[in-house]
Design goal:
4-stranded antiparallel sheet, coiled coil, 6-stranded antiparallel β-barrel, Putative efflux pump membrane fusion protein, Elongation Factor Tu (Ef-tu), domain 3, 5 helices, Helix Hairpins, single chain
């Protein structure tokens, strides 16, 4: 019993000494410096799947550093693979249809060309037959040829005229065939575009079965294991952005009023001999009850304003192995920007 009482006394004495030291430290600061305790927070990114499937492989472990676009998780889906195969087959079929249509266009145009050549030849024959008929008509008037000879010349001319008309009809039919086949070719080309669009969509869906890191980050939680079946939008990996580190402070109205976003700030972490630069990235518009973890010099100050101090991304990334979410410390801001920082709060970074 005495031992327990002694331990409680020592603990109370240590807590009192620590509190007195913190109050003395705060009192030593200029009156234009406001401070509050807080914890480091790292921005968390929950990486999720776009489509349902079975987890084929997980390529990272908790605590791993991953690069941007690094493969985190692979999913397997028979439906996705089947859709991609079907889309590619449809594309190949549509391309074959286009090739056949183009061959049909070529053949139809050749038929038109032959018909035009025949028309030219038959017109020449018609011209000759017309001359011979005119000559025979004159000779018949002069009784230089018989009636049967004249009838023969007239029949030759009529055959020539009929041949020209038949060739012109064949050309019109061939031209109609060309127009029809060209329309079929256009429809086939549109089918190719539709099939390729479907194939691209299926390929994108299949590629999305591989989950990649959206940024260079640290793995916080591995939420799935191989063999798990997940739905669309299921979280699979939780990442921490090493370039997005901040600390929330809670200050009374008097200290908060002069502050603006973008103002300089400082962060001092427990157990680290360093002063990290920071800026005010957020100031709450409404007061809230003081969280229990926040120490206030005046117990009557129940309502406080939340502000967020953010360490510059390049500094945060440089010390990404040192800075961790949950580390405790103090944040400092100047209520008068025209005043210099105290020497003890000049930026001082730890050795790397």
């Amino acid at each position: 019993m005495r031992k327990l009482a002694y331990l409680l006394f020592v603990a109370a004495l240590a807590a009192g000494g620590w509190w007195a030291w913190r109050q003395q430290e705060a009192a030593a600061l200029p009156d234009y410096i406001a401070t509050s305790n807080g914890r480091l927070e790292m921005n968390r990114i929950d990486v999720a799947t776009l489509y349902p499937g079975r987890i084929r492989a997980v390529h990272v472990n908790e605590g791993d550093e991953v690069a941007k676009d690094a493969v985190l998780v692979e999913l397997a889906s028979d439906q996705s693979a089947g859709q991609l195969a079907a889309a590619r087959a449809a594309t190949e079929g549509a391309e074959d249809t286009v090739q056949r249509a183009q061959a049909g266009i070529k053949q139809a145009k050749q038929t038109v060309a032959r018909a035009e050549a025949e028309i030219a030849a038959y017109r020449q024959q018609q011209k000759v037959a017309k001359l011979e008929l005119d000559n025979a008509r004159q000779m018949r008037r002069d009784n230089l040829i018989s009636a049967s000879e004249y009838s023969k010349r007239e029949a030759d001319y009529q055959r020539a005229v009929a041949s020209v008309k038949a060739a012109e009809a064949a050309r019109a039919e061939a031209q109609a065939a060309v127009a029809q086949v060209e329309a079929q070719a256009k429809e086939a080309a549109a089918g190719v575009r539709r099939a390729k669009a479907t194939a691209d969509t299926a390929a994108a869906a299949d590629a999305d079965m591989t989950v990649r890191s959206p940024l260079a980050a640290r793995v916080e939680y591995r939420l799935v294991e191989p063999g798990n079946v997940v739905g669309a939008g299921s979280r699979v990996i939780s990442l921490l952005d090493p370039g997005d580190i901040s600390m929330n402070l809670f200050l009374p109205n008097a200290a908060m009023a002069p502050l603006q976003t973008g103002d300089e700030a400082r962060i001092v972490l427990d157990g680290i001999n360093a002063v990290f630069p920071a800026t005010i990235s957020y100031i709450a518009s409404d007061a809230q009850f003081t969280p229990k973890a926040v120490e206030t010099p005046n117990e009557r100050e129940k309502l406080m304003y939340k502000i967020k101090l953010k360490i510059p991304p390049d500094t945060a990334k440089r010390y990404n192995r040192l800075l961790k979410g949950g580390m405790t410390g103090n944040g400092y801001v100047r209520t008068d920007r025209s005043q210099p920082w105290p020497i003890t709060l000049n930026t001082h970074l730890p050795p790397q």
